[in-house]
Each structure stands twice: as structure tokens, then as C-alpha cells.
TrEMBL record, chain A:
Alphabetized CDD domains for the sequence: TPP_PYR_PFOR_IOR-alpha_like (cd07034)
Gene3D superfamilies, per database record: 3.40.50.920, 3.40.50.970, Pyruvate-ferredoxin oxidoreductase, PFOR, domain III
Keywords, in A-Z order: Oxidoreductase
Top-level taxonomy: Bacteria, Pseudomonadati, Pseudomonadota, Alphaproteobacteria, Acetobacterales
Keyword Oxidoreductase part of the UniProt annotation: yes
Classification via PANTHER family: BLR6743 PROTEIN, PYRUVATE-FLAVODOXIN OXIDOREDUCTASE-RELATED
Domain (Pyruvate flavodoxin/ferredoxin oxidoreductase pyrimidine binding) ranges: 220-383
Annotated source species: Caldovatus aquaticus
InterPro entries cross-referenced by the UniProt entry: 2-oxoacid/accept_OxRdtase_asu, Pyruvate:ferred/Flavod_OxRd, Pyrv/ketoisovalerate_OxRed_cat, Pyrv_Fd/Flavodoxin_OxRdtase_N, Pyrv_flavodox_OxRed_cen, THDP-binding, Transketo_C/PFOR_II
Descriptive protein name: 2-oxoacid:acceptor oxidoreductase subunit alpha
TrEMBL record, chain B:
UniProt-listed InterPro entries: 2-oxoacid:Fd_oxidoreductase, THDP-binding, TPP_enzyme_TPP-bd
Gene3D superfamilies for this protein: 3.40.50.970
Organism taxonomic ancestry: Bacteria, Pseudomonadati, Pseudomonadota, Alphaproteobacteria, Acetobacterales
Domain Thiamine pyrophosphate enzyme TPP-binding: 66-214
Keywords: Oxidoreductase
Domain of life per record: Bacteria
Protein name (Swiss-Prot/TrEMBL): 2-oxoacid:ferredoxin oxidoreductase subunit beta
Length: 612, 351
């Protein structure tokens, strides 16, 4: 039988039962490979459930450093009888199946073209442990032990990781070490080790870190000076607020009094969460909320108020598959339009599109400067894939010389000196007025904030020209923002081409891989990664420079393409949608095939040369 | 309402408070509500209370939702920042504002539609969080701006102007506030300024969630025969449990009281609430007894007013969270940003 062979380039997938304690063992497996200097991309595929339903963990080992999902499975660790059939079916021909061989399974349960590796995990655990929970948990560590023998993971690396994980808790460390070796020793003794899939130490990780986007965004908010966080629990954004609290507890207490330099409110719903943010920001604090699609729907009214009354707000939207409750634990980029034009009336909002946790941190901090500078809501558009999965990315960086940009805030001294204050008065043509914080001055600078129309001095009016004047200024302000938001990043093709591709967010890693593959196929594309809305002029220039631009997205309706079409008055025929929206992260294989397919279909080859 | 702005000139003999401000300094824009609207009386009572307490107007933040009542913050304390937010959501905005700067005085103005219908959820949660504020519901039992629909505080059996009879139970915001943990609960009547002004003063001095349900008849849509929120009906059925005097510092006692007829409650800031008892045995510091009494009198068809419950030693959201004394909106880069060295340690832990 054929057996796949590959070094540092394969996919391992673990099929587990939710709540069985597999997550920490799987993380141990992933991290041990990283510690051997080999890049990996790992993804949790989990149900909307706490205990009992199937869950998967996929690790792509890529010495070349590809961080997107590859697709396909070379080694399946099948620990869940519930999903056995589909798990076995997913293995590539010539791939491997590791399973718990304690109970014999009929031959019909296996495939002829797959290499079967049985390890009597339950039997070994039952022999070694009496406690039921321990029997369950140690089974996971045991298969990591077996895998270390089969794939050549250095045992010293695993030992070191266990030491770090259970630092100061030797009572827990030792049993884990024992279980690891039990699994490893059994495999070395009873199986042919290693198999065709092997790991070999590299130096390809460098100083990169391994972290999820939600944690990174939370740290960005902390470094960006956020003091008020109001949120309502919703997958997949919950861990963002929780990470903010965790890091604040470490880094944001007054050293003398031990009291908090932050306030976190778990609100009664998303409406209240954004309400708290708007109130706090109106009063001069940096405030944010973290949510997902359904929360965005609920926040619409307040977002319109914040836009119209010009109040800063930062909203982290960790997108999941909609509409409605959709697939709450599956990824998508399907809130682009809902956020760009959130709320009734004419509105436009700043959106940022981080590609990985490194950018979640950077943009997480930048969002607060932008929100203050433009006195408007800013959406940081993560998705479940970035937010809840650990990514190998560049380390977080911070310039200690950096200061918060609080934007145009008139002080008591300026008011006292007689400076003219008009809350909605554009003094220098950039569309951004001055604001004052409540309580600034005894007799100057107070104003009444409202969602109703008003003049340049915040006085209520329903006078048409005053309303139009204000709406035009808001447009001007949005225009100014183009130059402040993160610029797009262009990657030129190896040879001149009239074709381009636009992509954003978590599509970035698979896109890089797909571009390289397409190039090998002879398809040359200039590529532009959009990082923000409003679109920088370079985005429209890029489209203008190409005859045809593919727009790769993870939603059904080509939402970014729609936005480009509307905002840039682009002929839709020139923007070719490449769409992936089944809830799994987009893969390089998918992009490559879809673009190759469209590219050939759209290349009209004349049957006969036209007569001159 | 008055269409002519009052002249800015002050009469030289107008009395001044400790800050040297006259009552005029606490006024706002001209009201656009109907002539005789109870809400304007409440605005006047707020002006009087703030003036008497010598509160610096700019240290007050006034927040409201949407509706007739929510328009009123424009009509008092013109030197304060105001925020007319969205319908039923003032409590969350006020909570956020309070978190950002604990040093200001927060005054939330709402109506029965704003707080008991669309905003009942937020009303409940701000009370249970114990946000330090004065929350006044200008309660007229009717939707005024949309011309006369019943609100959720309309009493069962109350008749609308066009004759329809309300068949739904009324929501009793006072009972809710008490049950949800508000530490100061009162009910007033816009037609009784002598009672209302001290209640607002006491609430402003209270350092926790203070709630005043103020019955405020709607002259346009709910002041007719058959309405239970009309001036006549409320006057007839108003049963005050006590009369309140708010005493600041060590003011000498000038009046003589019958022994046992006065309860004194010292609030956290040192102010003394002197309550002249009207209902015998009513103890406003006993929450359970107060709730029972209110239910009994409600069943008897009375509208109980006065200071109904006060916790002299309340806690508030900042105390519960353990935030620093300095307002969060005044913290700078040095206090908020842990810097690159801390980040290097975080990076190291993620490898």
C-alpha cells in the first residue's frame, strides 16, 4: 500500500469529543512542533456546544511557512466514534489513521488505502489510573506520546513545555510526563517508528509568536489606552473581552492602591454594551465593545447616533457565519456591509481589516486614535478564524515614544482665552469639529448632544440648509479619514500583468500561498490587500491599472466587491468575485482552483483573427 | 410655554447662593413643551434644588432618552453638558459616562414610555448596578409626542382622552427600583414643588442609585376625567408618608417637632435628611416594610409619595468595581500604557 512521505509538510487532524480535555493535549502537540523551529498553522473546528458534540483540531505543518488552511488530512487521530466514518473518509489516499485499538473494530470500518495505526489507549489508561477523569485526560497526553515517536517530535521539547505549563504544580506535571512517556514507549516498542510523515528541526519560526487574534486585539485595546469595556457574551468574541480583563488585572492596577485603572461591564445586552461605550467616550474615556454579527445588528441605532452626534467608539467585530444565529462557531467575512453602512439614514463608518493577530494588536490600538481623531465609530473586523485560532505571527511591537492622539478636544484654557467653540463647526476644512469633555469650564464650551439635527453650534434645528451643511461636513470628514487609515499593501506579480486580485483579513495567508502556486501555473496576478475602509486612493488606482480584478472574500454576496463598486464607481464587470462561505476558513487550494477556473473561462480566445 | 426668551439681565436683588449664582444661572433654553406641562414644573424644581445646593452647573451631566420628558434637559442647567440619547437607552449611556468620570453629578431624565416600555431592561440594570446618579422619571402615563397612546405606567382602568380604557396592568417603577436595589427611592408630584425640591436635593446628595418617580400630568393628553394621572386625580389620591427637609452641615434646628414625629437619616456626605412623619410607623430605612406598605396603600387606591426608601450608607458601581479615585478620562499614557518592556515579556510568553 502507498504510504505518504513528507518532512515538515503535512496536515494532522484530531477528532475529539467536546469537553474531553483534548484541547490542552492538542496545544501541547502543536507547540512542540513550533519549538522545533517548524512553522505550523492550527485551527479549532468546534460546535456550538460545551460538552459532548464533536470537535476537531487541525495542525498544518509547513516548513515553507504557509499559514492558511491547506485542506485534506494526512494523519487523522480519530478519537471520536461519533464522527468515525466521516473522519476516516477525509484522509488522503496513502495517509494514516491513528486510533484507540482497545476495542476491536470490524474491517469494514477501515479503508484499504489508508495506513492504520492502532494504539490501545483506553487499555493503557485503565491499567495505569483508577480515577475516571484521569483516565480520560491522560488518554490525550498518551496519544501525544505515541505521535512523538511516530513523527519524531523531540521528547525534550515536550518535557520543557509540560514544565512551563505546570510551573510550580509538580503534582500535576509528573503524571503528565508519565503519560506522555507511556504512550511514546509503547509506540517505540510496538510500532514501526517513524512513519512516512516526519518532523525535522528547522530554524524557520524566528522571533514569531503564537497567539490568537482576540487576545491580540485585547492587548491592542489595552496599549491603545482603553479604560472602559462594555460587552455582552457572544461567540466568537467573548475571549476578546476576557483577555482584556486578564491582561488589565496584570498591567492596569494602581501600584499604590491596587485599584483598577479600567472598568469592565458585562452588559445586559449588546444595546447596553454599545450605550455604555458611547456614554464613556462622550465623557472622554477610551471605550470599546467586542461582539459578533448578531450584536452588530442590535447596535445599529447607537452606531447611527455615534456617527451623527460624532462620538468615538471602537467596536471589535469577530465575524461568524450569518445571517441570524447562522453558524455561531464557523468563520465568515459577512458583516462588511452591515458595518460599513451601519444604522438608518446616510452613514459610513471606518473599518479596519487585520490579517492576523499581529495586526489585530496594531489596529486594535490604532482604532482608538482613529476614533478620537474622527470622533466616530471604528470597526475592527476580525473573524472567527483570526480571533479564536492561534496564529504564528510577527511579535507585537510598541514604540514608547508614541502618545495617544485624542483628536480635537478644546481645553478649559483655550475656552478661557476666548477661542470660538462650535461643536459642529469645521474650523480648518478637514470636516472635523472640536469637542469638549463635560465639566470642562464653568460657563463656556457646554453643548447639548443629540441625535436630532442641529446647527454648527449644536442648536436644535430642522432647517434644511443647516442639515445639509452638517451632512456634507460629515462626508468631508470621511474623505479626510482616507489618508489616516492603514494603507493597502500591494504585491506585484513576477511579470507585468493586466490582472489583479484584491483580498483582506484572514484570506491573507492562503492568498499568499495561492499566489505562489498560481505563478507556478503561469497565472500572474498583481495583488492588493485592502486594510481599511474608506478606501485609500491607491485601492482605486490599483483597480484602474488592471483590466480585471478578482475580489476574494469569505461571504456569499461579495460584500467588499459591492463596497468597491459603490464607493469607487467601478464597473462591476471588472471585479470578478471569488467566494468561499461554507464556514470553514478559505484555503489556498480553493483560491487557486477558483481563480484558475475563472481566469480561463473569462479569457475569450478568438476563433479567428479579426481582419484588419 | 413661552415664546419669548427671557432677557439675560438679572435683577440686582435676585438672591444668590454660596457660589454667587442666582437661580437664573441654572436655567436653560426656553421650553417647547405645552403650557401647564408638569415636566416644566419638574425642570423648575431641578433648578431650585441645584441652586439651593450651590452645585456648580458645569459639574452636572444631564442625560436623557427620547420623548417629552427627555427634551427637558435642554431647559435647565444651560452650562451643563447634556445628552439626549436614544429611546429607552439613557441608562447605559449614563452608566458609561459615570464610569469615565466619577467626579461629575449625573442626572438622568426619562419618561414612563422611555423607562417603563422600551427601556425597562436598561432601567432595571442601572438600578441593580447601583450607578451613582439621580434618575427622575417624569411619569404622565401617556405618550405625548405621538399624541395620546397609553404607556406602560397607565393604570388599569384609566381612560384615554379618546375614551379607550386601559386593560393592562401598570408597571410600578417605584416597586421595581426598590426590588432591584436602588438605594434611594422617592415619589413626587410635579404639582407639589414644596415636596419635590427637597426630594431632588436629597437624591442629588445621595451617593448611589437614587430614583424619583415623579407623577407629572400631561395637560394635552392625560388630564381629563377618568385619567388616573390627571392633576385632580393625583391631588385627591396623594398620600404623602413624610415631609423632607435636607439639612447641610450643622444648621441649627429651628422648628419644634413632636417627640417621635421625626426621623433623621445622615447620608454618606454628611447631609441630614430630616423626615417629618405623616404616616405613623413608616420607616423609610426599612426596605421590606416599605415595600409592604406601598403595596397595601396601592391596593387601597392611594398614590403614596415622599421619601419611600433610603439606605444611608449606599455603595455604587465604582466601589463595586474597585476603580481608582482619579476619573478614568483623566488617566494619561503613563498610567494606561504598559510600554515596550512589558510587551516584550508578553511576546516571550507566547513563543
Amino acid at each position: 500500500m502507498r504510504a505518504l512521505t513528507a518532512t515538515n509538510d503535512f496536515v494532522v487532524k484530531f477528532a475529539n469529543v467536546n469537553g474531553s480535555g483534548s484541547a490542552s493535549a492538542n496545544t501541547l502537540f502543536a507547540k512542540s512542533i513550533l519549538r522545533m523551529g517548524i512553522p505550523i498553522a492550527s485551527r479549532n473546528i468546534f460546535p456550538s456546544n460545551i460538552q459532548g458534540l464533536p470537535t476537531w483540531f487541525e495542525v498544518r505543518v509547513s516548513g515553507e511557512g504557509h499559514l492558511g488552511r491547506r485542506g485534506g488530512v494526512d494523519l487523522m487521530v480519530a478519537m471520536n466514534p461519533q464522527t468515525w466514518d466521516r473522519d476516516v473518509a477525509e484522509i488522503e489516499p496513502g495517509g494514516y489513521l491513528l486510533y484507540d485499538s482497545t476495542k476491536p473494530l470490524p474491517k469494514s470500518k477501515f479503508r484499504d488505502d489508508v495506513n492504520v495505526i492502532g494504539v490501545p489507549l483506553t487499555e493503557m489508561c485503565n491499567a495505569a489510573y483508577t480515577d475516571a477523569r484521569q483516565r480520560q485526560l491522560m488518554k490525550n497526553i498518551m496519544y501525544v506520546g505515541a505521535l512523538s515517536a511516530l513523527l519524531q517530535i523531540e521528547p525534550a521539547v515536550v518535557e520543557a513545555l509540560l514544565g512551563e505549563q505546570f510551573k510550580g504544580k509538580e503534582r500535576l506535571a509528573q503524571p503528565n510526563r508519565d503519560a506522555f512517556h507511556m504512550g511514546r514507549d509503547w509506540a517505540l516498542k510496538n510500532l514501526e517508528c517513524p512513519i512516512g510523515l516526519r518532523l525535522s528541526r528547522l530554524d524557520a519560526v524566528g522571533e514569531r509568536i503564537f497567539v490568537d487574534g482576540n487576545t491580540a486585539a485585547a492587548l491592542g485595546a489595552l496599549y491603545g489606552g482603553a479604560t472602559v469595556c462594555a460587552w455582552y457574551p457572544i461567540t466568537p468574541s467573548t475571549s476578546l473581552a476576557e483577555a482584556f480583563e486578564r491582561y488589565c488585572r496584570r498591567l492596569r492596577h494602581d501600584p499604590e492602591t491596587g485599584r483598577k485603572r479600567y472598568a469592565i461591564v458585562q452588559a445586559e445586552d449588546e444595546l447596553a454594551a454599545i450605550g455604555v461605550v458611547v456614554g464613556a467616550a462622550w465623557n472622554g474615556a477610551r471605550a470599546f465593545t467586542a461582539t459578533s454579527g448578531p450584536g452588530i445588528s442590535l447596535m445599529q441605532e447607537f452606531v447611527g447616533l455615534a456617527y451623527f452626534a460624532e462620538i468615538p467608539a471602537v467596536i471589535f467585530d469577530v465575524q461568524r457565519a450569518g445571517p441570524s444565529t447562522g453558524m455561531p462557531t464557523r468563520t465568515q467575512q459577512a458583516d462588511v456591509l452591515a458595518c460599513a453602512y451601519a444604522s438608518h439614514g446616510d452613514t459610513k463608518h471606518i473599518l479596519l481589516f487585520p490579517e492576523d493577530p499581529h495586526e489585530c494588536f496594531a489596529m486594535g490600538a490604532d482604532a482608538f486614535d482613529l476614533a478620537d481623531r474622527f470622533q466616530t465609530p471604528v470597526f475592527v473586523m476580525l473573524d472567527l478564524d483570526i480571533g479564536m485560532n492561534d496564529w504564528l505571527c510577527e511579535p507585537f511591537r510598541w514604540d514608547d515614544a508614541r502618545r495617544m492622539d485624542r483628536g480635537k478636544v478644546m481645553t478649559a484654557e483655550e475656552l478661557e482665552a476666548g477661542r470660538t467653540f462650535g461643536r459642529y463647526l469645521d474650523v480648518d476644512g478637514d470636516g472635523i469639529p472640536y469637542r469638549t469633555y463635560p465639566g470642562t469650564h464653568p460657563s463656556k464650551g457646554s453643548f447639548f448632544t443629540r441625535g436630532t439635527s442641529r446647527d454648527r453650534f449644536a442648536r436644535y434645528t430642522e432647517h434644511g440648509p443647516a442639515y445639509v451643511d452638517n451632512m456634507q461636513r460629515l462626508l468631508r470628514k470621511f474623505e479626510t479619514a482616507k489618508a489616516y487609515v492603514p494603507r493597502p499593501v500591494e504585491r506585484r506579480a513576477a511579470q507585468p500583468t493586466r490582472d489583479g486580485v484584491i483580498y483582506y483579513g484572514s484570506t491573507s495567508a492562503p492568498m499568499r500561498e495561492a499566489l505562489a502556486a498560481l505563478e507556478r501555473d503561469g497565472v500572474h496576478l498583481d495583488a492588493l490587500r485592502v486594510r481599511a475602509f474608506p478606501f485609500h486612493d491607491e485601492v482605486m488606482d490599483f483597480i484602474a491599472r488592471h483590466d480585471r480584478v478578482f475580489v476574494v472574500e469569505q461571504n456569499r454576496d461579495a460584500q467588499l466587491r459591492t463596497l468597491l463598486t459603490i464607493e469607487g464607481c467601478v464597473d462591476p464587470a471588472r471585479l470578478v468575485p471569488i467566494l468561499h462561505y461554507d464556514g470553514t476558513p478559505i484555503t489556498a487550494r480553493f483560491i487557486r482552483a477558483a481563480i484558475a477556473d475563472k481566469a480561463s473561462a473569462l479569457n475569450v480566445v478568438p476563433l479567428r483573427k479579426a481582419v484588419p | 410655554m413661552s415664546y419669548l426668551p427671557k432677557p439675560r439681565l438679572h435683577h440686582p436683588t435676585l438672591p444668590k447662593n454660596a457660589l454667587g449664582y442666582t437661580r437664573r444661572d441654572y436655567e436653560g433654553a426656553i421650553s417647547t413643551l405645552c403650557a401647564g406641562c408638569g415636566h416644566d414644573s419638574i425642570s423648575a424644581a431641578i433648578i431650585q434644588a441645584c441652586w439651593e445646593l450651590s452645585i456648580e452647573p458645569h459639574r452636572v451631566a444631564k442625560l436623557s432618552g427620547i420623548g417629552c420628558s427627555s427634551k427637558t434637559p435642554d431647559y435647565f442647567l444651560g452650562a451643563s453638558h447634556g445628552f439626549n440619547s436614544v429611546h429607552g437607552r439613557m441608562p447605559s449611556v449614563l452608566t458609561g459616562a459615570n464610569l469615565a468620570n466619577r467626579d461629575l453629578i449625573y442626572l438622568g431624565i426619562s419618561g414612563d414610555g422611555d423607562s417603563a416600555s422600551i427601556g425597562l431592561g436598561q432601567f432595571a440594570h442601572i438600578m441593580r448596578r447601583g450607578v451613582n446618579m439621580t434618575y427622575i422619571v417624569e411619569n404622565n402615563g401617556v405618550y405625548g409626542l405621538t399624541k395620546g397612546q397609553f404607556s406602560a405606567t397607565s393604570d388599569k382602568g384609566s381612560k384615554a382622552k379618546k375614551g379607550a380604557v386601559n386593560t393592562d396592568e401598570a408597571i410600578d417603577l417605584v416597586a421595581l427600583a426598590m426590588q432591584l436595589g436602588a438605594t434611594f427611592v422617592a415619589r413626587g408630584f410635579s404639582g407639589d414643588k414644596a415636596q419635590l425640591v427637597p426630594l431632588i436635593k436629597a437624591a442629588l446628595l445621595h451617593r448611589g442609585a437614587a430614583f424619583i418617580d415623579c407623577i407629572s400630568p400631561c395637560v394635552a393628553f392625560n388630564n381629563h376625567e377618568g385619567s388616573t394621572k390627571s392633576y385632580d386625580f393625583v391631588r385627591e389620591h396623594n398620600e404623602a408618608v413624610n415631609r423632607l427637609d435636607v439639612i447641610l452641615g450643622r444648621q441649627p434646628i429651628t422648628a419644634e417637632y413632636e417627640p417621635g414625629s421625626v426621623i433623621e437619616v445622615t447620608q454618606h456626605d454628611g447631609s441630614v435628611l430630616r423626615l417629618r412623619k405623616i404616616a405613623p410607623d413608616y420607616d423609610p430605612t426599612d426596605r421590606v416594610a416599605a415595600m409592604n406598605y406601598l403595596q397595601e396603600r396601592k391596593a387601597a387606591g392611594e398614590i403614596v409619595t415622599g421619601l419611600l426608601y433610603v439606605d444611608p450608607d449606599p455603595t455604587d458601581l465604582h466601589a463595586k468595581l474597585g476603580t481608582v479615585e482619579v476619573p478614568l478620562n483623566r488617566l494619561g499614557d503613563a498610567e494606561l500604557c504598559p510600554g515596550s518592556a512589558a510587551l516584550a515579556r508578553i511576546n516571550a510568553a507566547l513563543r
